[in-house]
Amino acid sequence: MRAARYDEPYEDLLGLWSDLEAALSVLLSEPLRIPGFTLKLQQIDLWLQDLITHDTDVALYLMFQRASSTTVGYSPSHALVCASLCHVLAKRLQLIQSERDTLIQAALTMNIGMTALQNQLAEQREPLSPSQAETVKLHPMEGRVLLERLLVRDALWLETVQHHHEVLPPVPLAQLQPVQRLVRILGTVDRYAALISPRKTRSGRSATESLQILQQGQQYADEVKQALADVVGLYPPGTYVQLDNGEIAVVLRRGPTAADPQIASVIDASGHGLYPPILHMADRKPQISSALARSSLTLDLDLRSMAQLGVHSARGSAALYRMVKLPGSKVY
């Protein structure tokens, strides 16, 4: 595994995230064939922490773009999205370090009992067969059994994986036992990430709609849901929004409030792609009318170029104005 070098071009950072997902995919697909499973999983966690700490908004951007746009390699992608969201939530929810570490390990491995099937189901248009339905039903316990074969001895990790689909009473986190607390957090994140992700049988939902669905279910309507809204925003980086001037924009970075992110218009009011995209400054930014699901866009946007704008936007207004001299960007 390569360590992140922050003096390298942004393209290398994007490559590092791709490498991380590829490493996790190998680990989850062939766990019994890889020596030192737990050590390699810890290395992936450290790698994940390194990349998120470097730039949380870019991490969120890449995760939400990936989660909302493709069904390929769903299982490791979903695990990485969930682990990343758990990482940023752990700090907001003030988890102790040992619980934070176990939460990430459980997020990365909660579906290890059905990795191949989960990838298959994301691409499958037909209803589940009886044998597939049985595998899905049993995968939490199968995941625990497999982790035990991989010499995982952390009881909290094993129990969190075993119970990660259980619905708990809607009581404050502080009143729950550690395993219940981690199950509550992981279950909320798992559901949220699944709602955003498309399947062959349905389109992914917008991040805002996904949060609203979580709120409707009482088992998720607690401080975990609120913390999720606080840390990623109503319009997370990497998601799309309809503006009141008729344009469609992509969210680049979180803003001062959950409802006020940094945005760049990518489609004009007539439905034509904007190249270069238009970066909106805070003092003259159009208002967001609604969130959009990725499936509602008819244009394919370049992930690399758009996320590059997010990196530049983190450097402040002066840097944004200097971007006028660079190809591929306008600032309004």
Radius of gyration: 20 Å
As a percent range, the share of helical residues equals 40-55%
Q: Total helix count?
A: 13
Form type: globular
Overall pLDDT level: 82
Overall SS class: alpha+beta
**What is the CATH homologous superfamily assignment of the domain at 7-234?**
Hypothetical protein af1432
- The CATH topology of the domain at 7-234 comes to Hypothetical protein af1432
Oligomer: single chain
User: Could you give the order of the helices and strands?
Assistant: HHHHHHHHHHHEEEEEHHE
Strand content: 5-15%
CATH class label of the domain at 7-234: Mainly Alpha
Could you give the order of strands across the largest sheet? Answer: 5-1-2-3-4-6
The CATH architecture designation of the domain at 7-234 is Orthogonal Bundle
> What kind of sheet is the major sheet?
6 strands, mixed
Spatial gap, N to C terminus: 40 Å
State the total count of DSSP E strands: 6
Low-confidence stretches: 1-9, 314-332
Pfam families: HD_5
InterPro entries: HD/PDEase_dom
Protein name: Phosphodiesterase
What does this structure look like?
This protein has a domain at 7-234: Hypothetical protein af1432, CATH 1.10.3210. The chain has 332 residues and is an alpha+beta fold. The chain starts with 9 loop residues before the first helix and ends with a strand. Helix content is 53%, strand content 9%.
Throw out a few tags for this protein.
332 residues, alpha+beta, Hypothetical protein af1432, 53% helix, globular, disordered N terminus
